[in-house]
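G., the chain you wanted modeled:
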Amino acid sequence: MDLLSLRCFQVVARCEHISRAADELRTAQPSVSRTIARLEAEVGVRLFDRRGRRIHLNRHGEAFLRRVDRALAELEDGRRELADAARGGEGGGVTVASETLLTLTGLLVAFRAAHPGVDVRLRQSSAESMVRQLRTREVDFCFASQPLAGPALLSVVLLTEEVLLAVPRAHRLAGREGVAVADLAGEPFVTPGRGHWQRVLSDRLFARAGVRPTIVCEGDEPGAVLDLVAAGLGVALVPAIARAFGTRDIVGWARLDSADARRELSLVRAEDAYESPAARAFADFAVRHFRAVQPRVAA
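Predicted structure as tokens:
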């Protein structure tokens, strides 16, 4: 049972598709199939159920994956710790994930200016993907706008802000204070897809008000929401930080009459992960940055 086999299993388990896993591993599909077959023969049980061209982790595979993730994460932590020691603690890199990158723009500009020797890499990820990425050490931190479900995760709240209603500039609700969610019945609604924090929030608000939203646009580009609203396609829930730092003049704004129209942005990390000097510097900087930003975006 070698490391290459375990990494192959980890990728196949995530993709649940041999061809896609082969593409990610940059190897031939038959080689991936043979590796999985050898691994199953070695452990003595099937790890996947086969359904045509698709494969799915079974209960044995799920249990084994938890152990493999933990083992490979420990090895990755060890590799990074030795690399940092060889550099003498200078420079290095940090990888972060966020549902939307707009929130991080100001932070990244300021951090790069203060720490030019640190390489920062970004990933746009769903909340579900973030949990896996933390577990497998694909990322050091996640900026999450909703609770991440998973064991051994540590989080610190960076920002609590109001969520506003963005509308076309000539819309009847532009400039209104205290708009009831029920007043949005029948309004065309622009929203990110299911699982994104804005969609989770809107679903909760509408369900509580007994309103079924009329969704006219649903996608995976949260940054495009304001442009779609400005084009007159519909209305949308948007965090106050977008009004404070984004293209605020292209749309009209209204405030919702709901105590739940808030977003809590947290910095999340794996409790047992190795934290490099670069990662510690980034986390400390992020806390200070959002502490300074908070008064400008809070209600």
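The first helix runs from residue 3 to 15.

Shout if anything looks off.
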